[in-house]
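JOB MANIFEST
job_type = single_chain_structure
chain_count = 1
residues = 252
[input]
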Amino acid sequence: MDAARDAALRHTVADGVATVVISHPAKRNAMTAAMWRALPELLPGLAADPAVRVLVLTGAGATFCAGADISSLTGDEDPQALAVAAEEALAAFPKPTLAAIRGFCVGGGSQLAAACDLRFAEEGASFGVTPAKLGIVYPASSTRRLARLVGPAAAKYLLFSAELVDADRALRTGFLDELLPAGQLDKRVAEFTRILVSRSQLTQAAAKEFADGRTGREAHWAAQAAGSGDTAEGVAAFLGRRAPVFRWPTAD
């Protein structure tokens, strides 16, 4: 009972960064059914909060997320549907997202990490996609996202074998964007998120949609750019050797 009470998603907002922490220490931060349901409920409020410019997803302590806590499910709950709903909500978050990874990032943990825009990890982290150990058909949407991220061959290696791979291999395949020495992850995430917060939200929002394959929005973003004044501000700041003050999305 105590372990169940300790399982939660915790979040803070500071300096433009929302940090969501997967916390279930008794089971290496495995996601309970309640935690899977909580993520899609939490994200819309953070997305709408003008104080939030970037979202960081991480795990409490020395582990990111060891997957799903199957023991938390009731008989009528579909664990795959819960995980996919949380993954898709995270992927749809309109602002930059970054997974900060230590230790195990396995199963549902890898699903959540793959749904983020960027992934930074500390040396010693391990990654795995493990449905082949259980005879589970991995969701089509999750499979496609993984293949887009690491390429078909690397995705097949992970899915066919269910083997864990180390952080060096995850970096080589493109699953990771940066690999940090032990003890340096928090410092680098704080440094990088400060950079993201200082940049144009207009550029980031449009780039995220384009990079994720959304089509038919070119005219929308052209109109947003024309009406925001951010391009003129960026050029003026560059010429004046000062930090820009971008107004979008608050510009009238």
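[summary]
DSSP finds eleven helices and nine strands in the chain.
The radius of gyration is 19 Å.
exit_status = 0
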